[in-house]
Amino acid sequence: MASASSIASAIASKTKTKKKHFVAQKVKLFRASDPLLSVLMWGVNHSINELSHVQIPIMLMPDDFKAYSKIKVDNHLFNKENMPSHFKFKEYCPLVFRNLRERFGIDDLDFLNSLTRSAPLNSEAQGRSGARFHTSCDKRYVIKTISSEDVAEMHNILKKYHQFIVECHGNTLLPQFLGMYRLTVDGDETYMIVTRNVFSHRLSVYKKYDLKGSTVAREASDKEKAKELPTYKDNDFINDGQKIYIDEENKKMFLEKLRKDVEFLAQLKLMDYSLLVGIHDVERAEQEEVESEDNEAEEEGESDGGGIGTPPDSPSNTLDSTKPLSPGEFDPSIDVYAIKCKESAPRKEVYFMAVIDILQHYDAKKKAAHAAKTVKHGAGAEISTVNPEQYSKRFYDFITTILS
Amino acid sequence: MSSNCTSSAPISASKTKTKKKHFIGQKVKLFRASEPILSVLMWGVNHTVNELSNVPVPVMLMPDDFKAYSKIKVDNHLFNKENLPSRFKFKEYCPMVFRNLRERFCIDDQDYQNSLTRSAPLNSDSQGRFGNRFLSSYDHRFVIKTVSSEDIAEMHNILKKYHQFIVECHGNTLLPQFLGMYRLTVDGVETYMVVTRNVFSHRLTVHRKYDLKVGCHYKLHALFSKEAKELPTFKDNDFLNEGQKLQIGDDNKKYFLEKLKRDVEFLATLKIMDYSLLVGIHDVDRAEQEEMDVEGTGEEDEYENDGMGGGVLTGSFGTPPDSPGNPLNCGGFFGPGEFDPSVDVYAIKSHDSAVKKEVYFMAIIDILTHYDAKKKAAHAAKTVKHGAGAEISTVNPEQYSKRFYEFMSNILS
């Protein structure tokens, strides 16, 4: 129960019962800067708890792909400190996403803790059409705000996506979809989808690329370049002379996965996806850590590399309780997309690469194109002259060339 | 009961690579019950106690807490249909107040939650006035009474003063221990429920039960209740007619009457009347005999293993196999007629020199009738009828309390 009860018991109550249950739960207040985040935390907490009372089925049924759970909260003079008094929370296909989490090696309670122990953080990353991003406090998960069209598209592909995950045993570069929700606060509906972070929860990324394999307007804008971690694009990659130094073995495994993935996407007539590439520079990170240790008096001085802060209670997260990792090292069961550079690389680096933004359907694009003559998608307008099949081939070829 | 399923299907098609390292030994609670309303009750109590665990315990209650409520509406589609209705609502009144009351009555929230959710509450044979429905938690520690919306309103009226009274007497009272108040909506039908601590024992069988009130002509009026069908109905009014008394000894009597006095004075100040003293009698020798009979026939009827004199016979006393795991059950074996006073708080042993070896359970019940409400009804209907035993109201709360106290003190020795 609440550890804060010790304060109350000193004053008013006389509790004689010893609390004999061995559940070491902390009080979660769902405190956040934004009511939407409080509702997200509350909602994920509620959804995982509900699921713990639903038997895990032997296999998913067709109805599970159409299901949802909806809850509406209306409090009066109760719990007003951290939560709005009125809100709604809807989870789409709870059993499907539970199954997906299991297949991606994510324990529901760990998932719950990551999203609820402390508020998710705003992320500077911007997706297409200014989609908003948050990361979980421990940086394991990314929460993306999406549109209702995206939710519809997810429903369309969910069965086949799930089947694909079953067949490849969760071994894929596609986004790991872990939960999909609709939050209603003050009458406004927000759709969110949770995926595993492509980047590391520990190792910092100093350079980031979004690659599609096309050449039209694939360059970071000046505004983008002014950011702390700009998202560079294809032309930047080429102009910078950037290379990904991974050995043959890794390259082979990576391309095999990529091939299967893009073939799957082409089958579903999805396109306009990107390869997100993040580079961790080991020496640079060590240097940053030394500098941050010098500044320790002001900061919260976390010592796990890359200057990434973690909430004070995270060491009790069971997945962290392994031995400490040296510079440039990672736990591949957590940082699933990480690939070490090869021995002969000029700098010691770790690469994080995966496919993102897969919800754009060709037919939806064509409709929009007919309506507007040219198809524009956020920054980087593209005139649609390719179909999904062509897109996938061009994409794959380009990625092959950037891996040395 | 079959509610203790483990959480993972053995023939699962999934490949779980993550080891589950968390040490929370939670059982899967399915909220399975014979009726949707019971499932919703279990779900609701589970939910509200969990919600409260995320709200810090305040230093003291504020006036707003006595007007507060939490409301939740669930609307599922093709999800979780096995044990719960797809649509239902659950409202908890004054959550912070009842949490505080539970604490003052030494009931841990987790234990409270477990009692009401591990297994479905059971229908109870007792019928209150107006045919209110009674349920008991599966472990018989708590009673759930279905009440009217007027009762809810009355509870709200008295709640602040009731809470204050509990603070002042340190939870030491014969008044009902109000532990939670809820409104459930299933299929568009609203049901109001109040949870109180069971007056009777969760273990020791009650063989005779009396509901004692002050009659309209200052007579002690006993309403008899039938026990479970296995037991004969007692028609004899032994101790009332023949002047027999409950022999609890001077110390117990003094202590009991002190509490009773405080309680009825409190009720009189609130202008509450028509309450009863509920008396239950556990016959130790008879219970031992009953247990031996059971052992003799080798009955496998939900046999409970926590010592002699454990309630075995009456249908309503079975406990699910996992109850020994409830930490409050692990308190060692009890001899015949013995009890844990922190659990069976109303239990009083008969005096050593008493004729029969008995354990008595006595407490005040039905405290929600307000004098003004009664008078209004009287004017409307000329005669005031209250369930069995029509009564024309010629007493006021003050008189009622005095007579009540006198009568009850006379039945004790």
Descriptors for this entry?
heterodimer, A: 404 residues, alpha+beta, seven-stranded antiparallel sheet, five-stranded mixed sheet, 12 strands, disordered N terminus, B: 413 residues, five-stranded antiparallel sheet, 9 helices, 29% helix, globular
How does this structure look, described?
The complex is a heterodimer of chains A (about 400) and B (about 425). Chain A is an alpha+beta fold and about 400 residues long. Chain A is about 35% helix and about 20% strand. Chain A contains eleven helices and twelve strands. Chain A has helices at about 5-10, 35-50, 95-105, 110-115, 150-165, 220-225, 235-240, 250-265, 280-295, 360-370, 390-400, and strands spanning about 70-75, 85-90, 120-125, 135, 140-145, 175-185, 190-195, 205-210, 230-235, 275-280, 340, 350-355. Chain A has a seven-stranded antiparallel sheet. In chain A, strands 9-8-10-12-11 form a five-stranded mixed sheet. The relative contact order of chain A is 0.12. The model of chain A is unreliable at about 1-25 and about 300-320 (pLDDT under 50). Chain B is α+β, with helices and mostly antiparallel strands and about 425 residues long. Chain B is about 30% helix and about 20% strand. Chain B contains nine helices and twelve strands. Chain B has helices at about 35-55, 95-105, 110-115, 150-170, 240, 250-270, 285-295, 370-380, 395-410; strands spanning about 70-75, 85-95, 120-125, 135, 140-145, 180-185, 190-195, 210-215, 220-225, 275-285, 345-350, 360-365. Chain B has a seven-stranded antiparallel sheet with strand order 1-2-6-7-5-4-3. In chain B, a hairpin with a 2-residue loop joins strand 6 (about 180-185) and strand 7. In chain B, helix 1 runs antiparallel to helix 3 (about 110-115) and helix 6 (about 250-270) runs antiparallel to helix 9. The longest helix of chain B has 20 residues, at about 150-170. Chain B starts with about 35 loop residues before the first helix and ends with a helix. At the A-B interface, helix 1, helix 2, strand 1 and helix 3 of A face helix 1, strand 1, helix 2 and helix 3 of B. Strand 1 (about 70-75) of chain A pairs antiparallel with strand 1 of chain B, so a sheet runs across the interface.
